[in-house]
Write a structure and sequence with these properties.
The protein has 504 residues and is of the alpha+beta class. 33% of the residues lie in helices and 18% in strands. It contains 14 helices and 16 strands. The strands form four sheets. A five-stranded antiparallel beta sheet has the order 2-1-5-4-3, sandwiched between helices. The longest helix has 37 residues.
């Protein structure tokens, strides 16, 4: 039989741990962390055979809260909003319009199961909470009530906080909660994004007694989040239609190609050129400058128009290489990857092609982080291993890199995939290493967080961190330079192929 070269994996456990097993995992994990901090071996290493471990998202959350010093028996001081601020946040979230549909979707079908429905904004503030009266009284005793800020820093690992950080539906059951006072609860939550901007606007949560856990609740909550996003999309399409009606007479009078986009870059109308679906708008908007370099169109004159922009290419896109950065324009360019905000990774490019910036999707942020910390380059299989733990998922990697090339152009080289050598790369990371792309569960990103927390690696362009010192005050060892081969070996793809990949 021909060997595929893929390492064998330990079979996954098919049944979820029981409540008692989760409690043992919780107590053992925190005890081991305390022993490591006090340097009191022996203690079992994580992943030791025969020991159950917390799920990656839960384990990352616990490690972060240990670093913050949160007491699992006490938590932190609660933060509560006043009535006026609750009402203001309800209106700005946009979720008030879909609340009736959410009630019908989530509370009516499971009326026989005691549950609480809670809707939080993107900052974790509980804006609505409804459900059985006796269950609400129990929730009040742990501070889970309207106006409370349900974030990890205050109340530990919980469904709302984990879903907002991971930006995908999550289930936190029993002793997966960091605070022991929450071990009698189970909760499922799903994030809600604005379909027009991709911005996180909140989370929908169902909570109830741990003994009444129902496997279908996670799918039900995820469906409700999609329902909320569908309603938000309908509102945006209506606004886009109004902008199109307003722009039509103006476009008829404009000489040359032009298009009208809304504040998020979605095209409402176009004349004289194929309409792109969406332009990449900087996080802070285009500002007051008259001319901007727009990926896909090149240099453009921009004018504010109602709730959008009138965009006119200075040169026809065909003569401007469709706004793609050429290899010559990439020479000496500066690329900055800003990962300081958990919910809004941003890319900024400055060079011969002009200056521009825009928010990144979570997958593109992961890929650019791996390419920035591994300047020597990686094959598609190595990137697939780093992102998914599966070197066979090269089709997905190549598709995402192809999308990146549409606006990065000559900044991104291939065979192997890498950022062009002439480009100066800087990565701005958060103060807490565990806040680096918190939504990512990619193996390489998790290793990078751990390396940053231990001080063994640093991000490109970051200030050097003083090396750890021994008892006599002397450095215990040299600090790896940013983006060095030594740094990449500890955070990037773990298995380097001896034969180079020949296809892009």
């Amino acid at each position: 039989m021909r060997q595929t070269g893929r390492q064998s994996r330990r079979p996954e456990r098919r049944t979820a741990p029981s409540t008692a097993e989760l409690a043992r995992i919780h107590d053992r994990t925190l005890a081991e962390a305390a022993a490591r901090e006090l340097a009191q071996p022996p203690y079992p290493e994580p992943g030791s055979p025969g020991l159950l471990e917390p799920r990656p998202e839960i384990g990352d959350s616990w490690a972060r809260l240990r670093r913050l010093g949160l007491d699992p028996d006490a938590g932190a001081a609660a933060v509560h909003l006043g009535p006026a601020e609750i009402e203001q946040r309800r209106r700005t979230s946009g979720l008030d319009a879909v609340l009736p549909a959410l009630r019908d979707t989530l509370l009516q079908p499971v009326g026989q199961t005691p549950l609480l429905l809670a809707i939080a904004d993107a900052d974790g503030h509980v804006l609505w909470q409804e459900g059985e009266r006796a269950l609400r009284r129990s929730a009040d005793r742990i501070g889970f009530l309207t106006g409370a800020r349900w974030i990890e820093e205050s109340v530990g690992t919980n469904g709302i906080a984990v879903a907002l950080r991971a930006q995908r539906p999550m289930h936190v059951h029993s002793a997966e909660h960091y605070l022991r006072s929450h071990h009698s609860w189970t909760c499922v939550a799903a994030p809600v994004h604005d379909p027009g901007t991709g911005r996180l606007v909140g989370a929908i949560n169902l909570s109830g007694p741990a003994r009444n856990v129902r496997p279908y609740l996670l799918q039900l909550t995820a469906t409700a989040a999609r329902l909320a996003e569908t309603e938000l999309r309908a509102h945006r399409l209506e606004a886009l239609h109004q902008l199109r009606t307003l722009a039509a007479p103006m476009l008829a009078r404009v000489a040359g190609p032009a298009l009208v986009v809304d504040s998020a870059g979605w095209t409402a109308a176009a004349a004289g050129l194929p309409p792109p679906g969406r332009l990449r708008v900087p996080v802070g908007g285009w500002g007051t400058a008259a001319v901007h370099w727009v990926p896909g169109l090149g240099e453009c004159a921009l004018e504010p128009l109602a709730d959008g922009w009138l965009v006119r290419p200075v040169r026809p896109p065909e003569a401007d290489a469709s706004g793609t950065v050429t290899a010559e324009q990439a020479e000496g360019a500066r690329l900055r990857l800003d990962l300081r905000r958990q919910d809004r990774p941003e890319l900024t490019v400055r060079g011969a092609a002009g200056s521009w910036s825009h928010p990144l999707s979570p997958r593109h942020a992961e890929l650019l982080l791996l390419l920035a910390t591994g300047r020597e380059g990686s094959t598609a299989a190595q990137l697939a291993e780093a992102l998914f733990g599966d070197p066979g998922r090269t089709v997905t990697v190549r598709a995402e890199l192809s999308r990146l090339r549409r606006y990065l152009g000559g900044l991104l080289a291939h065979r192997p995939y890498r950022i062009a050598e002439s480009v100066l790369v800087t990565v701005d990371g958060p103060d807490d290493p565990y806040d680096l792309l918190p939504a990512s569960s990619a193996p390489a990103v998790r290793r990078l967080r751990a390396g940053l927390a231990a001080g063994t690696v640093r991000l490109p362009g970051a200030a050097p961190v003083p090396p750890p010192r021994g008892p006599a005050g002397a450095p215990t060892g040299p600090q790896p330079p940013a983006s060095s081969a030594a740094s990449w070996a500890s955070v990037g793809p773990q298995a380097r192929s001896t034969s180079a990949e020949t296809s892009a």
